[in-house]
Design goal:
CATH architecture of the largest domain: 3-Layer(aba) Sandwich
Largest sheet: 7 strands, mixed
Strand order of the largest sheet: 7-6-8-9-11-10-15
Structural class: alpha/beta
CATH superfamily of the largest domain: Thiamin diphosphate (ThDP)-binding fold, Pyr/PP domains
Shape: globular
Oligomer: single chain
CATH topology of the largest domain: Rossmann fold
Number of strands: 17
Radius of gyration: 27 Å
Number of domains: 3
Length: about 650
């Protein structure tokens, strides 16, 4: 039995020797690598956070004390140390443990997160609640720590929280886990400042610079210097006054080696002795302990990982086989979107591409290769990205903002107040719309469509296939107002490439005629509707299929024309049902005076948990067999076995 297998509670770490902790750190990394080899996951960030996780749990008593993991990419070691080691091989699988902290899994998980920049606000709220308790309450002595990445610390929400914390001065430990990366390299003025601190002479010097600078720091001064025996030979660290944090009232300690466990423990313990908020800046290596991830942390950040060679952590393992001829894969919607944007950009220098810390995931890194001066990565600041685009549009440019749908939620105010109110030609590309899969509740792209349908001036489109996405990009570029395009992370239909052509806004298309049922789809779910129509035909049910293309403005005339006289209308979308595309179809039928049964196909009310997209679509009954079953139920037909002709999406 390994040492890790004996851990059921993090308090078991308190009595461990240095040698045991080193062994445990190695076992944690090996467990993560082996698991992610099978399940996918956020590997590099969690590998880099092993020692700081051990140090936090060594100086704290979770769950009485609270550890908040901003984003949650860093929390695999925390999960393994808090009673989930025996279930870790179910990571991100349907019915298994989640890839982010989840309160339903463990009392040690404080907050269901997934989006960067939330941690400090949660920590300030916890600290405020603690400090309102009477001193006689043991909970009033609770220690609270927030672990936040260097990219997330520059987000707008974190800045707001730090500003407030500097005013309230609640005792709170903020661990700034600085690996110079979010998913892609961190950008921004604060990131540049942190980089200067890492490379500064003060960081390289030891005893003499510490003796000279530490007593000058407000609040900390000589007592903390003595407390930590800061002048001990070989203690390569400095406490340097950093204007930004100190000036807003937060004591700064750093830069520390984020892989030196004893150094981290001493600093964290000292921080908890101080009266007020403390930020401890630690330098870590993303991917620590697995050479390929250290060398290419971008590739090893997220779920779509390169192959993991287990022989690099265990010589008894078989090495990866030599690569054969690569298998050709259809282009994704993301690739198609950016290809068309690059093509348009060659002819129109007004096109500007903007993203919020996701140049690789959104595909805009390719645009940056062609037009480096017209690409803008604003860091984890989605609202700024959208409002900046509004300013660019006012300046005569044609900005395109590409975000994951789940992060588009954070830009909603800028979309409402700045873009739509001013009716500006901003294109919003919402990648990962619909089910995303293993990242779970925080990342499913299911809420933006209902949120946007009520916005004046905004046109909303989604393609039935990747080549129609080219048409929508061309149409959006020519449109004089705001437009949102929704497309999934999926591969396309493997159609032959062609140049995009403008299409009429608000005009859908009839793909198949039929007399009994009308199926109306928004987005790539249309492909499943065509399969369903073929199956219904075999049952003697004649089904028409409309590709709506547009959720706003909806082609109400086309829908009304082909709904007349039908037994059933079935609007379908991969989105939240309430307020979504289906409700738009229902409203259109009511306005046309057509009253007949409507069976909305959409995601069920509530959050959708983690699992493979194919499994989730089957669970939600929005794969082709699930849609077919729902149509048959609405028609009052008996259920039939799952047809071999209809794939599980």
């Amino acid at each position: 039995m390994t040492l890790l297998e004996t851990i059921r509670e993090p308090t078991q770490l308190h009595g461990m020797t240095k040698e045991q902790l080193e062994t445990l750190a190695s076992e944690l990394r090996e467990k993560m690598i082996r698991t992610v080899h099978s399940t996918g996951g956020h590997l590099a960030s969690s590998l880099g956070a092993v020692e700081l996780t051990l140090a936090l749990h060594r100086v704290m008593d979770s769950p009485r004390d609270r550890i908040v993991w901003d984003t949650g990419h860093q929390a695999y070691a925390h999960k393994l140390l808090s009673g989930r080691s025996d279930r870790f091989d179910t990571l991100r699988q349907l019915g298994g443990i989640g890839g982010f902290p989840r309160r339903s899994e463990s009392d040690h998980d404080v907050f269901d997160g997934g989006h960067a920049g939330t941690g400090v606000s949660i920590g300030v709220g916890l600290a405020a609640a603690r400090d309102l308790r009477p001193r006689s309450d043991p909970a009033s002595r609770q220690r609270i720590a927030v672990c936040v990445g260097d990219a997330a610390v520059g987000s707008g929400l974190t800045m707001e929280a730090l500003n407030h914390l500097g005013h309230t001065r609640h005792p709170l430990l903020i661990v700034l886990n600085d690996n110079e990366m979010s998913i892609s390299p961190s950008v921004g003025g604060l990131s540049t400042r942190l980089n200067k601190m890492r490379l500064s002479r003060a960081y390289q010097e030891t005893k003499s610079v510490t003796q000279r600078t530490l007593p000058k720091i407000p609040v900390v001064g000589r007592p903390a210097f003595q407390l930590l025996a800061w002048a001990k030979e070989g203690f390569k660290r400095s406490w340097a006054k950093v204007g930004f944090f100190e000036d807003i009232g937060i004591t700064y300690i750093g830069v520390l080696d984020g892989h030196d466990l004893s150094e981290l423990e001493e600093a964290f313990e000292a921080a908890f002795q101080l009266d007020g908020p403390v930020l401890v800046h630690v330098k870590t290596i993303k991917g620590r302990g697995y050479a390929p991830a250290e060398e290419d942390s971008m590739s090893f950040h997220g779920a779509s990982l390169p192959p993991i060679d287990l022989c690099l952590i265990d010589p008894t393992e078989e090495p990866l086989p030599a690569e054969g001829k690569p298998t050709r894969k259809p282009k994704t919607y993301t690739q198609t979107f950016v290809e068309e944007l690059v093509r348009l950009g060659e002819d129109d220098p007004r096109i500007q591409a903007i993203t919020a810390g996701m140049p690789t995931g959104t595909g805009l890194s390719r645009f940056a290769e062609h037009f480096p001066t017209r690409f803008h990565d604003v860091g984890i600041a989605e609202q700024h990205a959208v409002t900046m685009a509004a300013g660019m549009a006012l300046g005569g440019l044609k900005p395109v903002v590409a975000l994951y749908s789940t992060f588009g939620q954070r830009a909603y105010d800028g979309l409402v107040h700045d873009v739509c109110q001013n009716d500006l030609p901003v294109v919003l590309g919402l990648d990962r719309s619909g089910l995303v899969g293993e990242d779970g509740t925080s990342h499913q792209g299911m809420f933006m469509l209902p949120a946007m349908r009520s916005l004046p001036n905004l046109v909303i489109g989604s393609p039935k296939d990747e080549q129609e996405l080219r048409d929508l990009v061309v149409t959006a570029h020519a449109h004089p107002g705001p437009m949102a395009l929704l497309y999934p992370r999926d591969a396309g239909e493997d159609l032959a490439d062609r140049q995009g052509e403008p299409i009429e806004i608000g005009r859908g298309e009839l793909l198949r005629s039929g007399d009994d049922v009308l199926l109306v789809g928004f987005g790539p779910i249309v492909q499943r509707l065509l399969e369903v129509a073929a199956e219904l035909e075999a049952d003697g049910v004649s089904a028409a299929v409309i590709n709506a293309r547009w959720a706003k403005p909806l082609d109400e005339a086309l829908i009304a024309e082909h709904a007349e006289g039908k037994r059933l209308v079935v609007p379908a979308e991969e989105s939240a049902a309430m307020g979504g595309f289906g409700d738009g179809v229902l409203d259109a039928l009511n306005r046309a005076g057509i009253h007949l049964p409507v069976a909305k196909i959409a995601l069920t009310d509530g959050f959708v948990h983690h699992g493979a997209v194919t499994d989730l679509r089957a669970q939600q009954r929005i794969d082709a067999p699930g849609i077919l079953a729902q149509v048959r139920e609405a028609l009052g037909q008996p259920a039939k076995p799952r047809s071999s002709k209809v794939p599980a999406a």
